[in-house]
Amino acid sequence: xxxxxxxxxxxxxxxxxxxxxxxxxxxxxxxxxxxxxxxxxxxxxxxxxxxxxxxxxxxxxxxxxxxxxxxxxxxxxxxxxxxxxxxxxxxxxxxxxxxxxxxxxxxxxxxxxxxxxxxxxxxxxxxxxxxxxxxxxxxxxxxxxxxxxxxxxxxxxxxxxxxxxxxxxxxxxxxxxxxxxxxxxxxxxxxxxxxxxxxxxxxxxxxxxxxxxxxxxxxxxxxxxxxxxxxxxxxxxxxxxxxxxxxxxxxxxxxxxxxxxxxxxxxxxxxxxxxxxxxxxxxxxxxxxxxxxxxxxxxxxxxxxxxxxxxxxxxxxxxxxxxxxxxxxxxxxxxxxxxxxxxxxxxxxxxxxxxxxxxxxxxxxxxxxxxxxxxxxxxxxxxxxxxxxxxxxxxxxxxxxxxxxxxxxxxxxxxxxxxxxxxxxxxxxxxxxxxxxxx
Amino acid sequence: xxxxxxxxxxxxxxxxxxxxxxxxxxxxxxxxxxxxxxxxxxxxxxxxxxxxxxxxxxxxxxxxxxxxxxxxxxxxxxxxxxxxxxxxxxxxxxxxxxxxxxxxxxxxxxxxxxxxxxxxxxxxxxxxxxxxxxxxxxxxxxxxxxxxxxxxxxxxxxxxxxxxxxxxxxxxxxxxxxxxxxxxxxxxxxxxxxxxxxxxxxxxxxxxxxxxxxxxxxxxxxxxxxxxxxxxxxxxxxxxxxxxxxxxxxxxxxxxxxxxxxxxxxxxxxxxxxxxxxxxxxxxxxxxxxxxxxxxxxxxxxxxxx
Amino acid sequence: xxxxxxxxxxxxxxxxxxxxxxxxxxxxxxxxxxxxxxxxxxxxxxxxxxxxxxxxxxxxxxxxxxxxxxxxxxxxxxxxxxxxxxxxxxxxxxxxxxxxxxxxxxxxxxxxxxxxxxxxxxxxxxxxxxxxxxxxxxxxxxxxxxxxxxxxxxxxxxxxxxxxxxxxxxxxxxxxxxxxxxxxxxxxxxxxxxxxxxxxxxxxxxxxxxxxxxxxxxxxxxxxxxxxxxxxxxxxxxxxxxxxxxxxxxxxxxxxxxxxxxxxxxxxxxxxxxxxxxxxxxxxxxxxxxxxxxxxxxxxxxxxxxxxxxxxxxxxxxxxxxxxxxxxxxxxxxxxx
Lengths: 439, 306, 337
Hints:
CATH class of the largest domain in chain A: Alpha Beta
Radius of gyration of chain B: 24 Å
Largest sheet of chain A: 6 strands, mixed
Number of domains of chain A: 2
Strand content of chain A: 5-15%
Distance between the termini of chain A: 21 Å
Strand order of the largest sheet of chain A: 2-1-3-10-6-11
CATH class of the domain at 90-260 in chain B: Mainly Alpha
Helix content of chain B: 55-70%
Order of helices and strands of chain B: HHHHHHHHHHHHH
Oligomer: heterotrimer
Order of helices and strands of chain A: HHEHEHEHHEEEEHHHHHHEHEEHHEHHHH
CATH superfamily of the largest domain in chain A: Periplasmic binding protein-like II
Strand content of chain B: under 5%
Number of helices of chain A: 19
CATH architecture of the largest domain in chain A: 3-Layer(aba) Sandwich
Structural class of chain B: mainly alpha
CATH topology of the largest domain in chain A: D-Maltodextrin-Binding Protein, domain 2
Number of helices of chain B: 13
Distance between the termini of chain B: 4 Å
Helix content of chain A: 40-55%
Structural class of chain A: alpha+beta
Largest sheet of chain B: none
Shape of chain B: flat
Number of strands of chain A: 11
Largest interface: B-C, 128 and 136 residues
Number of strands of chain B: 0
CATH superfamily of the domain at 90-260 in chain B: MetI-like
């Protein structure tokens, strides 16, 4: 029933046709942007399917960008469809197994390795530097989408780990913004906020238990100079490392410094920070707009500062693509698809349409077209300010990273409820990792 | 054939259904008291059961930021913005289009389910043939497997038939009685009809088709109405099928459109979500109110009028 | 008179009226000649042809859409399959892992059993009780029927999650009402001990489907049976036990079986309320929710299929037992001869 071999052959055939076309037009070696237009018949009528995740707001922005695209390429019809994030991936997984992936997809970093290694995504190498303009994209950023030597995704935008604070709430309870420092300093600051709020009779906590997020573990490990996983996809941390990390949260969990799990569950899927119940949260810096939206009209600004320091001078942070664009290897129109990807990533028109809706544009030309609102400017400034702490990005996430991330979150939840001891938690996580790695 | 038209139809029924003879008045006082108690008890239950729905209705007038913050019934800052926003449609597709899509799929599903399930049920309940036992067990067996594990093989099948992004994968299975629930439901009703009638018809030379249409179908009307109601509502609410098989936004039915206001990775517009889902409730509520009447009349008053 | 013999008597009464009806029908059609019997075998063959004829649509659907995928999933249960590469045979590994090395699985089994054993009887009792109440008088019944069915209309949309969470949050209506009685439980949503009861109440709240089926069943009871019972001097209670329950038993059996199966497969409501996480602390991680997460989020489709087939076997055993008990309490008017 699952004729993978056949699909692979089809993919190979498509790739062959694509490269043959390139050879015929003499552009296989890649050339300047001027020659790009000659790689295919620009007047050929082509229809492409484009899929992305997002809400109605993002859909309207895509519509705008596609309209601009069609002014330039009236022969390429783009049929777009969109869904929420989990539904989007459920549909893609089914299509990956059963055939029928759309030509151009908005892609998530955590799935990139899986789809690439299984030959589902087109190697964009032949189009780099011609159809897809690489000038405005830094080498760093291009490297992010490389799996096993093939470029299968172009980042649209980047984000970095950071810490949001809520100045209005802090002012309300009379506590100064976190002045920076190590994790103990952060714990102490959160306690100060929680105590001040209790004294003022406000339902507010200093923050959320940060040991529930794998990214904080990653930041601490990277401060020691180690990524969570090696290039070969082997785990690069021990059970002791993990136990130590989770034990760090013991005090703040039990003394009421951080918001309780029960209260968090009541507002889920929103976070404590979304609902004005916590004054700070460690997260990706592109979450700001969502926070402001969920907090409502009473809140107009947020603080964005760097995460606590584990090791002075360590390069523990990195730029991650908030999303990428990829092309299905089964596409019948690779050149047209690449043209669309180039437009969506690089063109000032797309920068103008999206602004920072998809994160801070990774391409200089798109960034120039984008009009930055105060929050976006704040994020851009933040990413510039942490330059000293930015190191090389870790290897593309292992297959099943998403499972581990979720497992980590659920374990953090149980630690918060006290239904799991740290030792059992470590056992569970490692046994889960075993399964994931042997998948 | 009027055996049921004129008689009081339910156990304690002093009140006749339709133009029957005058109710027997044994203890009018007690009857009134009983009715009052009956009414009050039902009203109390109704209030409890309906409260969450009333809450939903009121919450459609809450701005998104009140969700998760204000569990009360009344909005703190009432607004009709949610409705203003949703009637505009999503991503260039007008709202009515989603309604029309849902309606089309649901109506086709009802037709398909009724025809195919009633036929199959008759065979299982009334015809004695080799293999009927095994097939019946197999039919029940299809109820037991969680559908998630057969999603992918089915998708591959429809993809090979090039039916993805059409409504066929949603409608065709209904015409093939793949929902064993309805087959089994109708089987139970047919088995509860005395056989004398079909045997008599049989002696008169009627074949199975004739017996099916002129005797069985009229007698299982309550089951058919029930199946129609459930098929309509469940199809209307189906999310997974359309998610997998429909690609183009202009073909989306309501449940998918409803989710488009929610994206975990950006802001979720709860206000718009509840507004759409409330609007989406109205057609099926109307459908239910209209059809539940036939359900009540059922055999008792509609029976076989000779 | 025992209930059993009574039910036979009442069934006889039903058949009598049916026979009378049949005679009239025959008269109306001017009578017909009985077919000449062409021997048992020919008759059997005709019946077989007729049987399969009626089953054609179902057979096409069964063979074309259901059997293949089912067998394939059975095969997958013995493999490691991540949707992307070919399944790899691993024998009973998946089953061994389930019962020896997966605490989440065992927890999931546990909460699902509680959900089924507690939730199903309450839901059915509520559905039957309300159906009987609705059947008692006709005045305003349309309004009541629609009201009681209304919660089932929203199915498992995002709105259900929003509404239900609000009802059970701290300071919400449920908490508030309980406080009136001096019960201080706080919010249920984040309370590990109260999430499961909250989910059971959601299932009970949406009791519309079995209620409608009970109502339809009640309407199928011929009124003469009650008349006959009354002639025998039966009071309301006796009539209930000797007429209503036996005549309703096929429908009770149906609802019992189907609601049990459905409860074992509870998915959408839990998935939506927990936003797909099965939380808090795994308390909404019902069997199918966990199965789904394993199959589609973790891409362990082999393991998910193995889980599915364990469920199939368990539910099949329960269904088999229920079918066996049928003889002692389910009464089919069409098969009592």
